[in-house]
Amino acid sequence: MSRVGKSLAPPILGLALLLAACHPSGAEYISDLDVVATTHDPTFNFATPSTYSRPDRIYVISGDPTTSPPEQLNPQTTQLILNTVDNAMSAYGYTKVDVSAAPDLVMTFSVLKVTNVNYYYGYWCTYWGYYYPCYPYYPPVVGVSTYVVGTLIMDMAPYSSTAPPGNQIKGVWTAVLRGIQSGSTTDNNQRIVNGVSQAFIQSPYLGHQ
Amino acid sequence: MRTHRTLVPLAAAFVLLSASTARAQIPPTLVGVSYQFSIPIGETYNYTPPVSWRGVGLDVATFIRPDLAVGLAFGWNVFFENTTSTISYNGTDITGNQDRALNVWPTLVNARWFPKISTNRDLQPYIGLNVGGYIIEKYIAIGQVATQTTNYHFGLAPEIGVFIQNPVGAVFINARYNMAFAAGGVPFQQFLSFNLGYAWER
How close A202 gets to chain B, by Cα (Å)? Predict the structure, then answer.
């Protein structure tokens, strides 16, 4: 009796283990890796301000900080981002004005661009690898993969007509969009629009209509 | 024809496993393995709503009286959810595609009472109580970032089930209400597991 039972145990256990897995899924599409994060100053009353101003260009922060003039985001993508922001701010009841008109809020934008490089060497091992170390291929076989991670940062701060102490002003809202650049400009732009829109959707406290 | 060749042995095995024959006693020591599916409840449901179809259990039980057995219960239950939603963390709202998983490893001691409802005990219901710990690994991945915490939770699990004896052992079916108390910042976890297994004498 017990022998029969024992013979049944391994297949049952094996089947169950096959069905189990630590983390059963992962990212399938590059857009699955997009993240939108927002934070705000909970003591700031967003019901008061009604006007805002913003620059018409977006600078790119990449590898060399001494590059002068700093790299700018391409005009098409810049306009896409700024239009999406303007639409969202308008929907929340804000009016865009020129910075010379002393707006209640000022928005700034910047993009971080980081190129990640992964590489690996090929090695060979034999049965004797248990006793002897593995050796690199000769000639060496090296695999390389690169991907670009882009981060759009949107900041909002109260307007000040004079330079604040230390040239620093405390922001009241920050949004960070992070994603991996894909090969399709159309796809990238759509993801940017979705991300910017999402930043405002998840910040309903900005609205005062 | 090929289908028949597969189905006939399967049907024969099922009949063999589920057929009841007269037995005087449940064997003094049993070892059982089980497939488990679980319904998340409370905070477990909030984190990973879908029913878990991934689960396995190992039970060992020894009868200290004809109607009372004590034993050990081990298991592995995997809860998983893929969702795009907004979560709040330290004042920051984060939206992205999330992979959430709970890996739960119950490590329990238990006592089970087998009321005598017939002389041959072919169909033997029981009730039991499990006490012990749940190792719970809580995992979340958002975008390119993943984090996980593992804690040991004290827990309880009342259980009700039935043994269906056959000439080579016993099929058992039970339901276990797992309650793992809060630990390490992970709130009270609950899930109802239904276990279908096979036990044999050791």
Answer: 7
Kindly report the nearest CA distance between residue A102 and chain B, in angstroms: 29
The answer to whether the beta carbons of residues A48 and A104 sit under 8 Å apart is: yes
CB contact under 8 A, B95 and A37: yes
Strands (E) across A62-206 are located at 95-96, 105-121, 123-124, 135-136, 142-158, 173-180
pLDDT in tens, B115-135: 988 777 788 999 999 999 999
Residues whose CB falls within 8 Å of the CB of residue B93, separated by 6 or more in sequence, listed in order? A37, A38, A39, A202, A203, B86, B87
Which of B80, B91, B144 lies nearest to residue A33, judging by beta carbons? Answer: B144
ipTM, interface predicted TM-score of the complex: 0.77
| DSSP H/E element including B120 | none
For residue A53, what are its two tokens?
A: 């101003």
Q: Of B5, B78, B12, nearest to B48 (Cα)?
A: B78
Residue B66's pLDDT band (cuts 50, 70, 90) = confident
In words, the CATH class of domain A32-206 is: alpha beta
Indicate if the pLDDT at residue B23 is higher than 60. no
**Tokens 């004590």 sit at which residue?**
B70
Q: Please confirm whether the linkage preceding A69 is cis (ω < 30° from 0).
A: yes
Residue type, A202: Q
DSSP state of A195: H
Residue A52: pLDDT over 90:
yes
Which residue of B56, B142, B169 is in closest CB contact with A20? Answer: B56
Query: What is the C-alpha to C-alpha distance for residues A75 and A169, in angstroms, rounded to an integer?
Result: 28
Which of B121, B198, B186 is closest to A12 using CA atoms?
B198
List the one residue out of A36, A29, A30 whose CA is nearest residue B85. A36
Predicted local distance difference test score (pLDDT) of residue B1: 43
CB B134 within 8 A of CB B152: yes
Domains with residue ranges and CATH for chain B: 2-201 (2.40.160.20)
Q: In this structure, how many other beta carbons lie within 10 angstroms of the beta carbon of residue B105? A: 15
Contact status of B87 with chain A (Cβ, < 8 Å): no
**Cβ contact B117:B111 at 8 Å:** no
Reported as a pLDDT band with limits 50, 70 and 90, residue B24 is very low
